[in-house]
Design brief:
Helix content is 36%, strand content 21%. It contains eleven helices and twelve strands. Strands 7-6-5-4-8 form a five-stranded antiparallel beta sheet. Strands 10-11-9-12 form a four-stranded antiparallel beta sheet. It has a three-stranded antiparallel beta sheet with strand order 1-3-2.
């Protein structure tokens, strides 16, 4: 049975009300219960009386759950409850469609079995298979890009737990700069993100106002800091925090319009797999596209990965930045040519 998210939230709220024998739920109470549930999960409510009646009608139908609903009169009013207080829509057997969908979910989750820090995944999958008698197929038909040998994966589950439970972390972190020395941080974890097959922790480090991102593969040691009061995130919406960048490096800057020209051979590849969500085709004949982002190292890597198939046209400042990178690379691969330019006699020998 396919339902949208809001409908699923309302059905669960109504099911809870109908099972409750402590209170009498009149239509206005049902509306309030659904409203509260929607606000809790979505941030917005707004349920009409008509919508609740339609939900009840659906739940009573064979397409829904055929719920055994009683309408009990209380003077001129009516309250609603299940005939059997032990009944619940969550106890009903799966439909064929739901069973097939759940089996696909189990198959997808199974791809993460055996990864470090994913012991909990084994328990979740096994419980699903046992509870619904749905053994995932042995045939492997899905492949995810993952690197089980990546350092730092053993910290992933603990980092997620700390972020969920609002626990500050004491981290010993290896800094590749300044001689590669280790640095100690107290960080208040807010968000975990994967990019380019690596995991990053984003949070606020004690003594700093900006958001810091730490690569898990550079963590030397980590532990919960119970003696430190957690500083909650009350300003960053991580759902949109990365909207203006490629990757995970976010600098306090304004997004720029960056125009790129793509070779004929690679143009359709770039169109089918955009560099960024803002990508637009500006001139299809000349294969010019535009993205609006804050330039960072990850953008450099994306553009340079196309080699001669992608050229930065504007802005001049970013074009010059990429040009300098290419010049430095040129010197590494073609030192003799540089020597020839500097010493004409050497080239004529």
């Amino acid at each position: 049975m396919s339902t949208n998210k809001n409908a699923a939230i309302r059905y669960q709220a109504l099911d809870k009300c109908f099972r409750d024998r402590r209170y009498r739920y009149y239509i206005d109470d049902l509306i309030d219960a659904c409203d509260e549930a929607l606000i809790y999960y979505n941030g917005t409510g707004g349920v009409s009386r008509r919508q609740i009646f339609e939900d009840i009608k659906f739940m009573e139908s064979e397409t829904g759950w055929s719920i055994p609903l009683e309408r009990k009169k209380d003077g001129k009013k009516v309250y609603y409850r299940y005939e059997d207080s032990d009944f619940s829509i969550n106890q009903q057997p799966l439909t064929d469609e739901e069973a097939q969908q759940l089996q696909t979910v189990i198959l997808t989750l199974s791809r993460f079995r055996g990864l470090p820090s994913n012991e909990w995944m084994e328990e979740v999958i096994s419980n699903l298979e046992w509870r619904f008698n749905l053994k995932g197929k042995n045939e492997n038909i899905i492949g995810f890009e993952q690197n089980p040998n990546l350092k730092g994966l053993e910290y992933l589950s603990d980092v997620i737990d700390a972020a969920s439970n609002h626990q500050p972390l004491r981290i010993e972190y290896h800094n590749y700069k300044n001689g590669g020395r280790d640095i100690s941080y107290i960080i208040h974890p807010y968000y975990v993100k994967q990019y380019n097959n690596r995991w990053f922790l984003l949070g606020r480090v004690d003594g700093r106002e900006d958001i810091t991102n730490l690569a898990l593969d550079r963590i030397v040691s980590m532990s919960v800091a119970p003696d430190v009061a957690f500083v909650p995130n009350d300003s960053i919406d991580f759902e949109h925090y990365f909207d203006d960048v490629v990757g995970v490096t976010v600098r306090p800057s304004t997004p720029e319009d960056i125009f790129l020209q793509v070779s004929e051979d690679r143009f359709m590849y770039v169109v089918s797999k955009p560099l960024h969500q803002t990508q637009k085709i500006i001139d299809e004949n000349n294969r010019i596209i535009r993205i609006k982002v804050i330039p960072n190292r990850e953008l450099d890597q994306q553009i340079l990965s196309y080699g001669a198939d992608m050229e930065v046209l504007t802005p001049d400042s970013y074009r010059y930045h990429v040009q300098k990178i290419i010049e430095e690379n040129y010197k590494k691969y073609f030192p003799m040519q540089d020597d020839c330019i500097d010493n004409v006699e050497l080239c004529t020998r």
